[in-house]
Amino acid sequence: MAIFSSSWELPLVAVCQVTSTPDKQQNFKTCAELVREAARLGACLAFLPEAFDFVARDPAETLRLSETLGGNLLGEYTQLARECGLWLSLGGFHERGQDWEQTQKIYNCHVLLDNKGSVVATYRKTHLCDVEIPGQGPMRESNSTIPGPSLESPVSTPAGKVGLAICYDMRFPELSLALAQAGAEILTYPSAFGSVTGPAHWEVLLRARAIETQCYVVAAAQCGRHHEKRASYGHSMVVDPWGTVVARCSEGPGLCLARIDLRYLRQLRQQLPVFWHRRPDLYGSLGHPRS
After folding, report:
1. From the UniProt record, which GO molecular function terms apply (predicted)?
2. pLDDT 10s digits, 202-244
3. Which residue out of 16, 24, 44, 50 is catalytically annotated?
4. Of the residues 167, 223, 249, 256, which is catalytic?
């Protein structure tokens, strides 16, 4: 009984899985229902996936539907965070930045709101997904999106220090190591992973990022068919610093919950002190592999 009550005091996080469409108001309604459920269940922080606002049919529709951080949609999420009294990781917002007039391109922006609805951090995706995977259809994120200029320092939240990333960023371990060295205890990769790369790479990459950084990894994902041109893999999950999947969403929209045990994280880092053993003097500048 004592063990149960002590684990009950650990902060609880909720990971939301959705199927966004081009219908922004319907998407908000779906996300808001999950956030309210997370609050009812006692979560202090809820994570939404990349493109929680919408998944458009083409770059032109993406640009047309995008908004500024001061627009109506973020206003609704500000109110929602305040109403529910919990923090929100809005995993990938199509943001018209200050340079919108000149560039006519947007940022893929991860927004962190506190429980009063204030924006406490914004991270603009630095690695854009321009890939051609047979069977999955080409992705050209740079057609509509500008890469962000910098990483965001990890942010103290009621669950721990959160390092912000987005989807394709998980393929770059340098980013996760930089966030961990800056103090992150939780890394988050909100995503809309494809149906071919998903089964092959999704879980193994998330577990690898958790093991090498000794952080919790939280990955809220898009799932199912968004429209006739696009589908996502789903399988939202939370991985602990040992690399164990401690929570996982079932198929379809919904949420899963996990406790964040920072005492366990610190104990593990003490027992396996990889950050003390690193040799940055040997690694040099890691660039393109030599052919």
Report:
1. deaminated glutathione amidase activity
2. 999 999 999 999 999 999 999 988 887 888 899 999 999 999 9
3. 50
4. 167
